[in-house]
Amino acid sequence: MVDKDGGDTVAEFMLGMVETHPSDLVRVTTEKFNISRQAVHQALKRLIQDELIQASGWTRSRRYALGPVRKRIVALKVAADLDEHRVWTEQVRPQLQDLPQNVLSICQYGFTEMLNNVVDHSQSPEATVWVTRTPLIIDLWVRDRGVGIFHKIRTECGLASEHEAIFELTKGKLTTDPERHTGEGIFFSSRMFDDFTIISGAVDLLCHADGAPWSFEEREPVSGTSVHMRISPESSRTTQEVFERFASAKDGFSFDRTRLAVRLVDFEGSALVSRSQAKRIVARLERFREVILDFEGVESVTPAFADEIFRVFASGHPQVHLMPDNDNVQVRQMIHRAVGGLRAQRSQ
After folding, report:
1. Would you say 75 and 142 are in contact if contact means Cβ atoms under 8 Å apart?
2. Burial of residue 347, with CB atoms counted within 10 A of its CB: 0-12 exposed, 13-18 middle, 19 or more buried
3. CATH class belonging to 10-66
4. How open is the CA angle 105-168-166, to the nearest 5 degrees?
5. Which regions of the chain carry the CATH code 3.30.565.10?
6. Which of 64, 201, 247, 348 could bridge to 253 as Cys pair (CB 3.0-4.6 Å)?
7. CA 219, CA 233: separation in Å to the nearest integer?
8. Residue among 221, 230, 255, 256 nearest 150 (CA)
9. Are 321 and 290 spatial neighbours (Cβ–Cβ below 8 Å)?
């Protein structure tokens, strides 16, 4: 049931208001949607039957609260024969019964991909996984005591720092074991969940499904890697929708699109001025057909920086379509200057 303005459903509204209106939930819901008390009680009855809301007392002393939190924590010995799908089926999925299929599929994809990464990459002797479900959110965690994902990428890929490893990871198609992995699991999972966070070393790497670029926060160093995935049970997102957003039919719907937060290369707080910075941005981009370069938070770039991306790289890789986004006037001027140089070069 939806209000006249097409806003929250009655059920969603009650779940959001029950903690602040435990004794007058029916009244505030009736006033919000301008519907009968009988209609509100019918919706409330369904929420109680589904254990999303619990009731206590009778008649005038009737009070409501969020339903019981479902939580499961499991310690695992990590070995080559650890089956992530068995852990999902036996330990995690029972806590997520009655979820919409689209949300359940996202949870299954993200959880199994992250646990498989622990088995194949972490070098950890053990892992801990847990799931927490409330009427409003689902939290999945996968934690190991291994070498740390950013450290692993830095050493295996020969990068100068863990910050460079973070930037490469956000591009997608990055793996330290190409024979068994495609480098897609983290990229796609980060776009499926409402919030996706990797905690490792001295950095928290965050991604939000609302389209905001990756961001990171410095922290006290921690060992191993923790991945936190959060999603609303009411999410309308689907795995197929996310796959199709970053794939095209030209190559059998393979992963050929990506979006980069350009400001992540500026992890030292310096301006984007050098060709070496630009080269870090375009590294491995030849693996994609379309690349959105998100300049949100970038106030200026130099002609050399823009030239390295939009003339030098573009000239050598004409099959890659570079698309700037969220660029301000100054950045746009530098890009247009570089693109003009590319056109002049091609016309010669």
Report:
1. no
2. exposed
3. mainly alpha
4. 85
5. 70-242
6. 247
7. 30
8. 221
9. yes
Written as six digits, the tokens of 297 are: 């938070």
Residue 7 pLDDT level (bands cut at 50, 70, 90): very low
Kindly report the backbone phi and psi dihedral angles of residue 219, in degrees, each rounded to the nearest multiple of 5, phi listed first.
-150, 170
What do you get for the CA distance between the two ends of the chain, in Å?
A: 64
Cα separation, 28 vs 22, in Å, equals 10
CATH of domain 70-242: 3.30.565.10
Q: Order of strands, edge to edge, in the sheet holding 215-231?
A: 70-77, 126-133, 138-144, 215-231, 195-208
3-state SS of the chain is CECCCCCCEHHHHHHHHCCCCCCCHHHHHHHHHCCCHHHHHHHHHHHHHCCCEEEECCHHHCEEEECCCEEEEEEEECCCCCCHHHHHHHHHHHHHCCCCHHHHHHHHHHHHHHHHHHHHHCCCCEEEEEEEECCCCEEEEEEECCCCHHHHHHHHHCCCCHHHHHHHHHHCCCCCCCCCCCCCHHHHHHHHCCEEEEEEEEEEEEEECCCCCCEEEEEEEEEEEEEEEEECCCCCCCHHHHHHHCEEHHHCCEECEEEEEHHHHCCCCCCECCHHHHHHHHCCHHHCCEEEEECCCCCCECHHHHHHHHHHHHHHCCCCEEEEECCCHHHHHHHHHHHHHHHHHHHC
Note the pLDDT tens digit of each residue in 284-335: 999 999 999 999 989 999 999 999 999 999 999 999 999 999 999 999 999 9
Q: Percentage of residues in the chain with pLDDT exceeding 70?
A: 91
201 touches 217 (CB < 8 A): no
